[in-house]
C-alpha cells in the first residue's frame, strides 16, 4: 500500500490570489469547467468512484477534470490561486491552516476518519501501560492531533513523550528498530508492523468518539459556490451516491466499483480493493449528525477545527489561528442537507 499522506501539513502557507479559473465556463459549453483534486494511491474515495462512472458524471452540471494531489495543504493553496474548484479528503490541519492563510472555502460533505491506529508490542493492552513510553507519529498531521487528544483524554500528556517524524515510513522504521515503544501511524505501515508482532490498541475512529475527531472532508471554493451553486449541488448529490457505494453497496458491487476506480488511483486493482475496504468512510446515514448546528460554534466539525487550531498553535505552526466564528462559517450544510432530503 502507499504511504497515506492525506493530512500531512507543511509549515509554510503559500499565498496566492486570482480568479477561480478552474470554475469558469469553457468555450460555448453551458456547463462550467470544474477541476476536482483527489488523492491518488492505495485508498479509493468517492471521487475515484465518480471519476470512473460516466453515469454519475452525467448528472453533474459541470464539465469535470479529475486531478491527483499528494498533500491537502498544497491543494488548498492551489485552490486559492484558482487551480481547483473542489478538493477531496482534506484533513483538519490543512483546512484550518488554509483558512488562516486566507483561502476562501466551504466544507460541503464529511467523508471519512483517518485510517490510523496505535501499534504496540504484545504485552501492552491498554492506555495506562503507555506511561513512560515514547510514541512516534507524523509531526503536525491529523494523526498527531488524534494521538495527543487520546493521550489528554487518558491523562497521559505529561507521562508520554510524542516524537514527531517526517513520514509514516520513518515512524514504522523507528518502531521496528526499537527507537520508540509505540507508533501511531496509517493503515499501510500498521499492516507492516502487525506483521512483525505489533497489535493495535486504538484507532482514529475510536479516538473521534472520544472527542478528538480528525475528519477528511470535501471542500469547495467560495467562488464556485457563489457563481455556480447548481454545479455544487449536483456534485454533492453524486458524492452521496458514491459514498453509498463505498459504505453500503453489496460487497460484489462495491469491489467492482472500487476496481473501476483503480486506474484513477494509479494502483493495481487488488491493492485498491484491499486498501479501500479498510478505510473508515463515514456512512451516508451519519452525515446529518456532523452537519448539526452548521454555521455555529456548536457544530461538531467546527469543534474539531477549534481543537485543531489550538493544537497547531502549540506546535508553533500557526501564530494566529482563525477565530472560532470564522471556523464556524466554513461549514456549509445546505448542499448535503438537500441531497439527504432527496432534492437532487
How does this structure look, described?
The chain is α/β, with parallel strands linked by helices. The protein folds into two domains: 21-113 and 214-340, Periplasmic binding protein-like II (D-Maltodextrin-Binding Protein, domain 2, 3-Layer(aba) Sandwich), CATH 3.40.190.10; 116-209, 3-Layer(aba) Sandwich (D-Maltodextrin-Binding Protein, domain 2). Helix content is 44%, strand content 17%. The strands form two sheets. Strands 2-1-3-10-4 form a five-stranded mixed beta sheet, sandwiched between helices. Strands 7-6-8-5-9 form a five-stranded mixed beta sheet, with helices on both faces. The longest helix has 20 residues, at 229-248. The radius of gyration is 19 Å and the shape is globular. The two termini are 36 Å apart.
Give a nutshell description of this structure.
This protein is α/β, with parallel strands linked by helices and 344 residues long.
- As for the CATH topology of the largest domain, it is D-Maltodextrin-Binding Protein, domain 2
Strand percent estimate: 15-25%
Number of strands: 10
Helical fraction equals 40-55%
Bulk shape: globular
By CATH reckoning, the class of the largest domain would read Alpha Beta
* Count of alpha and pi helical runs: 16
Rg, Cα atoms, Å? 19 Å
Domain unit count: 2
**Helix vs. strand class:** alpha/beta
Name of the CATH homologous superfamily of the largest domain: Periplasmic binding protein-like II
Please describe the biggest sheet, giving its number of strands, its sense, and whether it closes into a barrel: 5 strands, mixed
Order of helices and strands: EHHEHEHEEEHEHEHEHEHHHHHHHH
Amino acid at each position: 500500500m502507499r504511504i497515506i499522506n492525506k493530512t500531512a501539513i507543511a509549515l509554510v502557507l503559500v499565498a496566492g490570489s486570482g480568479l477561480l479559473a478552474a470554475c469558469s465556463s469553457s468555450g460555448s459549453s453551458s456547463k462550467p469547467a470544474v477541476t476536482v483534486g483527489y488523492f491518488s494511491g492505495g485508498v479509493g474515495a468517492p471521487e475515484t468512484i465518480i471519476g470512473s462512472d460516466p453515469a454519475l458524471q452525467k448528472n453533474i452540471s459541470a464539465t469535470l477534470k479529475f486531478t491527483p494531489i499528494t498533500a491537502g495543504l498544497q491543494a488548498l493553496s492551489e485552490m486559492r490561486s484558482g487551480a481547483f474548484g473542489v478538493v477531496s479528503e482534506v484533513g483538519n490541519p490543512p483546512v484550518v491552516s488554509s483558512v488562516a492563510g486566507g483561502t476562501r472555502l466551504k466544507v460541503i460533505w464529511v467523508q471519512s476518519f483517518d485510517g490510523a491506529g496505535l501499534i504496540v508490542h504484545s504485552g501492552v493492552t491498554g492506555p495506562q501501560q503507555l506511561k513512560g513510553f515514547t510514541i512516534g507519529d507524523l509531526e503536525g498531521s491529523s494523526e498527531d492531533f488524534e494521538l495527543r487528544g487520546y493521550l489528554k483524554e487518558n491523562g497521559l500528556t505529561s507521562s508520554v513523550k510524542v516524537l514527531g517524524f517526517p513520514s509514516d515510513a520513518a515512524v514504522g522504521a523507528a518502531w521496528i528498530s526499537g527507537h520508540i515503544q509505540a507508533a501511531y501511524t496509517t493503515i499501510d505501515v500498521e499492516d507492516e508492523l502487525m506483521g512483525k508482532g505489533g497489535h493495535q490498541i486504538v484507532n482514529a475512529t475510536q479516538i473521534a468518539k472520544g472527542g478528538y475527531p480528525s475528519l477528511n472532508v470535501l471542500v469547495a471554493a467560495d467562488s464556485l459556490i457563489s457563481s455556480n451553486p447548481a454545479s455544487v449541488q449536483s456534485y454533492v448529490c453524486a458524492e452521496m451516491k458514491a459514498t453509498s457505494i463505498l459504505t453500503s453497496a453489496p460487497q460484489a458491487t462495491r469491489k467492482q466499483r472500487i476496481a473501476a476506480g483503480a486506474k484513477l488511483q494509479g494502483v493495481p486493482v487488488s491493492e485498491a480493493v484491499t486498501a479501500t475496504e479498510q478505510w473508515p468512510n463515514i456512512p451516508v446515514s451519519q452525515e446529518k449528525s456532523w452537519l448539526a448546528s452548521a454555521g455555529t460554534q456548536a457544530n461538531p466539525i467546527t469543534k474539531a477545527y477549534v481543537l485543531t487550531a489550538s493544537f497547531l498553535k502549540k506546535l508553533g505552526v500557526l501564530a494566529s489561528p482563525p477565530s472560532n466564528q470564522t471556523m464556524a462559517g466554513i461549514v456549509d450544510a445546505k448542499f448535503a442537507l438537500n441531497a439527504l432530503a432527496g432534492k437532487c
